[in-house]
Description:
Layout: E1 22-26, H1 30-41, E2 46-50, H2 53-62, E3 67-71, H3 79-89, E4 94-99, H4 104-112, E5 117-120, H5 125-156, H6 166-178, E6 185-188, H7 195-204, E7 213-217, H8 226-231, H9 248-251, E8 256-260, H10 267-279, E9 281-282, E10 291-292, E11 296-301, H11 305-310, H12 316-322, E12 325-328, H13 339-353, E13 360-361, H14 363-371, H15 377-391, E14 396-397, H16 404-407, H17 420-423, H18 428-442, H19 447-454, H20 458-470
Parallel strand pairs: 1-2, 1-3, 3-4, 4-5, 6-11, 6-12, 7-8, 8-11, 13-14
Antiparallel strand pairs: 9-10
Helix pairs in contact: 2-3, 5-7, 13-15, 18-19, 19-20
Amino acid sequence: MIDKMADHSSSTTDEDQGPPLRVLVVDNEKAHASVMLETLERVGYTCAMATSGPEGAKVLESGQFDIVVTDLMMNDIDGMGILSRAKEVNPETQVIMVTGHATVPRAVEAMQGQAYSFLEKPITPAHLRAVVEKAASEVRLKQGYRNLQQRLDEKFGFEKIIHQSPQMKAVIDRLKRIAPTDAVVLITGESGTGKELIAQAIHQNSPRKNKPFVALNTGAVAEHLVESELFGHVKGAFTDALQDRQGKFEYANGGTLFLDEVGDMPMSTQIKLLRVLEEREITRVGDNKTSKVNVRVISATNRSLEEAVANGDFRNDLYFRLKVVTVELPALRERIEDIVPLAEHFRKQFAKHHQKEVSRITPAAVQKLRGYDWPGNVRQLRNTIETMVVLDADGNLDVDDLPPELSEVEIATTTASGGPSDLIGQPLADIERWAIEETLALTNGNREEAARVLGIGARTLYRRLDQYNKE
């Protein structure tokens, strides 16, 4: 029975940690079940009650519970049966057994069968709440981890990489073949093309997704510290080594290590990195013993490693060890089709982040965006759109919102699909089709906006597009 003496314990609710957790109390002594339910409801849990084993099993089937508190000794379906049913419905449900002294061995047996804990009668309200709160912490931890994985899947799933260009479609097709393997990958491309994003996508779509993804920009670390960052060090290894320190390889064990700007790595470190890749073991700076590591290495560079090898700045054997599989990211100017969808993505992202009503990017501004060379690639486009959103005053990102370097862009009279001069002497239907397709590109496929810009009805536009699809 629950001891009903006054209870002044502090609340163990999860009000500040998301929605209240759902608890099912199962006990064939109705009075006992009611006291447990009231004890838990007082501190914010959402509770349901069943006064027999069969009723508890039925309630379990009708709704998902995070925690079940069940008496062990019941007729027809006992606590072990409730445990089994609860785990069938939701393997992450935490089950707490309530038992008398004589049945403690069976409660221990239940814990071996995946019960979370057991409570021995008589139970005080404080003890009940404490054990339930520990189970709740376990539930929240698992929910948080699952939510994190879901967010990572949403962010780094291949289908979430924004693209329309055939160049990026080819890249993603290649990534889908690479990710499930354990191959070492070298990503090349200009600065700002999204090499770390691609590395994270590879990791998140690999069997290592539940292990760490660790990134290190070797070009941003002082030369004398690169080895310590990668392999760790022991106390006293050098002047500032005041204690033992784990390196990135150890921290990433079981997961993926992303080495950005690998072409800037000191030659002495290159030798040790080659050894790690070949022998899968590291030695901390200042130590003599080795430690085994299981890490997938993905590296990236905006330099030509072939030239670095020819100049003697990069080891030839390490170069070939890193480029088992290569992924080359095209510059943004080489995939013009991706500029508008990326810009639209950033517009929505930063409008939400800065809490501003910014409804669109005008066709005139889009033409400027498409006509610019983007030396800083996707990173520069992202920063440009954020600046435009922050400074915008009328809810439309227009030419007047563009930074000076884009305002000066001359709009070309021809396009990749052919300009007006190429259409002189062509059938009117061909000229019309060109105008429709180009305007759709400018409006990021927004048919209503394209119809407005063209000065035609939306139905007319839909009929034309349907006709083109049938040809």
